[in-house]
Input
Amino acid sequence: MRLSPLGAAVCLLLFAGCTDTPKDDQAASHRERSSVFVMDHHSAARPEVSVITHMDLRLNVDLSAKTLNGSVTYAIAPDHGSEIIFDTDGLLVHGVRGEDGKDLAFTLGEEGKLGRALTVQLSGPTPQVTIEYEAGEGAKALQWLAPNQTEGGKEPFLFTQGQAILTRSWIPVQDSPGIRFTYTAELTVPKELMAVMSAQNPQKRSADGVYTFRMDQPIPAYLIALAVGDLDFKAIGPRTGVYAEPGMVDTAAWEFADMERMVSAAEELYGPYRWERYDVLVLPPSFPFGGMENPRLTFATPTILAGDRSLTALIAHELAHSWSGNLVTNATWDDFWLNEGFTVYFEKRICEAVYGKEYEDMLDLLGYQDLLHTVQRLDSTGRGADTHLKLDLKGRDPDDGMTDVAYEKGYAFLRRVEEVVGRARFDAFLRQYFDAFAFQSMTTERFLTYLEDELLGREHPEISFDEWVYGPGIPQDVVPPSSERFAEVDAQIKHWMDGTPAVSLTTAGWGTFEWMHFLRHLPEGLGTERLAELDRAFGFTASGNTEIVAVWLERSIGSRYMDAYPRLDRFLTVVGRRKFLVPLYTALMRTEEGQAMARNIYGRARPNYHSVSVRTLDELLDWKQMSDAVSM
Ligand code: BES
Ligand code: ZN
Output
């Protein structure tokens, strides 16, 4: 169970001393302050032997050949050992040089689940190494889009997704969330396109296709990100703005108009925003996530452009990561809840400040429904251990254990602490926590100790850490969420079930959340006539709101409501967001006829998905076996 202080001390490798460096001198002092390295099972790097402090990336981006070609140079912390180990996955390493330009001996380890370790010999005091390399079409982090997968339809597009362990597939790097470094980059892209990174970004196209970037705050490798495409920028507030394809940038700027207010609300809660600008990049619809908190530049799916600003909680979420995750970072993927649980808590607080309590109550209840559902699914598939907050992902792809549990049970735990100590004390504690551990990594145990030291004391019978953090399911003392607006929705569902026609239901003023709740709570197994009635009354199949369409399509599959199938086909071939794809394909796989349809659609759509979605869906649809069977 929980590590004793002694066990924890043995586990942590103390690397350097001195912790009282001035706050503003981040780049120079971060190594001293992030002085503790923890064993990370998902990286071959041995930071306690040799660790990087700065990365300089020089790449040529060829969108026709689908290759990245160039070099990466690392500054290495003084007092390093005789070798340094990087993570790589699928990279072609051409050579490694020292600062003097002379070749350094290197070896590439066996290919494994985590890629291949690149070990470089450091003879004498070698302050830097340069690795010349190439990443090809198959690099797992990269998605190369053909023009027809973009909004403009004319230019190709490239984006990266680093979390959890994919950065090593496009940069040889010490790819562990506990290792932080600053970076600079110089990228050459086709002149017609613009490049942006998780760094200081251009707001205009360069004349020659060469772009330079700086990230002066130390970040872990999973937060390095790049996108190249036909992009424009539009300002929202003085330090916020949006990047998108030209045909979408105005729509996006309108949708995200509250961004500047969100940054201010966040600062009011938990202290200054430390990354200067906060911009959002709207990607093409194949982006596999809703959002990704790349520092200074959140990457977002266009599926949140609902036309009514109703899905911007996602922006609040990614913004909140600028504190929880990007400032104080989970030390290993086993501590993932420290990133996501805190972020969900913070997201809800931002939303409450900007949109009010009723909105937050609905968000809370939808999240709780997701949690109940996820816990039930994990329990029934023998994955009860994945319902613990502290995970054990050793030997697995971390992506497989990253579920709603980290988000919603993590949130519920923090919500419980808030309930016990009161909001004012909890807020003061969180603010202090983000300050105390800024630009450092955090383990679950270190957090719990800090929570006891600074807030709860050693005795806290009303909150059992063991149950919440190291136990399964949802503890008894969870604070159950409730929403008056959803109670009203429940009443309308009841009227409909009792015979009131759909058109006569009282739905005026309902927003996305009410409709989601409505669709989630319709009884199972409704006949197609009943779905047709709802569709005629509310136009679900034709809705432009992806959250609503996604639940509706799932219900339609369950009831074999064929009128929605053309929309389902289109949705699955255009949208690559895994959160939507998984429930829809899962629903199809429940029947034989559905399976045939799933495989037919997947066969066409698979080339349009990012590798993280492909990995999940190949397994769900038994795809490898299918394609082997076909080719035999
Ligand atoms: N950091 C995550 C996305 C992620 C998690 C990528 C794990 C890779 C591995 C991001 O902040 C996130 O949580 N996105 C959510 C949206 C959010 C509102 C819950 C998503 O993509 O749906
Ligand atoms: Zn998140």
